[in-house]
């Protein structure tokens, strides 16, 4: 049986934390509450020592990640907030608007429709978080969770305040504008859900069967012919249609910020696919077909 000596150092101070002598190569020795590094590269939790190119002596660096929260709980926290916050404004609970408007309802049908669409969107996200998504990273730092929740919760309150305001006026082109926007919204939501299901099935094979996503028989997945991250394309489309439906400036601003962030994520994923797979389709763009 071959044995291995492992020196464990603090990633910041380079202080020796421990020295492990005569370790069997076929035993897993990676604590989950630290982030292990070998030659500057992050090691996964499922790495096995015998598979690492370290010879008979290895030096590993550990970084304390601080308070963490699992990805499922992260997304639940991010999405439950906007769902409930919006409803507070829709039902006009006291002290949000003037006292005489407490628990009143808007006379405009588009306000109720917007609430239904917003509620459906975040209910879908919660269902996907619990039953569909498979997260590739174990945890997220608590400080980032607080920042993300502030972003989602804050913007939800901001746009809900204006859409449900007693002085809100419906879109300029009336029912026609609302109807077309609703159709696009529903299509994009269904498309986004279809892409998430496809990605979930793709990840079912694990690392050994790793491959890039391709269109299936589901027409909503045909956007894979043109972009690497159609889930983001559909997400932006849903918020664009919601902006048109409500004709509300805060919604449009929120959509713009979301598009910028999702473009960054999509371009990163697109580059990763292109590097990993030599036969990756050259026609695909990151998020906007033929453009970006």
UniProtKB/TrEMBL annotation:
Membrane-spanning intervals of the chain: 69-91, 144-163, 178-199, 220-245, 251-268
3-oxo-5-alpha-steroid 4-dehydrogenase C-terminal domain boundaries: 139-292
InterPro entries: 3-oxo-5_a-steroid_4-DH_C, SRD5A/TECR, TECR-like_N
Compartments in which it is found: Endoplasmic reticulum; Membrane
Domain (TECR-like N-terminal) ranges: 39-64
Primary localization class, coarse: endoplasmic reticulum
Pfam families in the record: Steroid_dh, TECR_N
Gene Ontology MF terms: oxidoreductase activity, acting on the CH-CH group of donors
One example of a Gene Ontology biological process annotation: very long-chain fatty acid biosynthetic process
Membrane topology: Multi-pass membrane protein
Domain of life: Eukaryota
Annotated keywords: Endoplasmic reticulum, Membrane, Oxidoreductase, Transmembrane, Transmembrane helix
GO cellular component, one term: endoplasmic reticulum
Family: Belongs to the steroid 5-alpha reductase family.
Record-given protein name: Very-long-chain enoyl-CoA reductase-like
Source lineage: Eukaryota, Metazoa, Chordata, Craniata, Vertebrata
